[in-house]
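Support request, priority: normal
Reporter: lab tech (M.K.)
Component: structure prediction queue

Hi team, I submitted a job for Efflux RND transporter permease subunit from Xanthomonas perforans yesterday, and the status page still shows it as pending. I've pasted the exact input below so you can check whether something in the sequence is tripping the parser. The sequence length should be 103 residues. Please let me know if I need to resubmit or if it's stuck on your end.
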Amino acid sequence: SVRTSGQFASEKDLAAVNLRLNDRFYRLSDIADITRGYTDPPKPLFRYNGKPAIGLSIAMQKGGNIQEFGKALHERMDISTAELPVGVGVHKVSDQAEVVDKA
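Reply from support: The job had stalled in the queue. We restarted it manually and it finished. Here are the results:
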């Protein structure tokens, strides 16, 4: 498997990459099948309450106000969470703005 750095917009872009092997050039698609998928088995596996989950970290830019950032983030998360499909939820693991508010 190959992990790309985001330079490729599609599988076709990746398939068109030229490789040099033994003084000959090949397209990646000539020597490999290009598919989009997930790592199997998944590594590293993020869990919440023992169940598979997706981890997302959101950080404030340098010089910002953590309380204002936290308030704006909560407002956006409320909007985004309302648009999630049934069965998909958001669970906060850590919130620096709340820690600062309580200090």
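The first strand starts at residue 18 and ends at 21. Strands lie at 18-21, 24-27, 46-48, 51-53. Let us know if anything else looks off. Ticket resolved.
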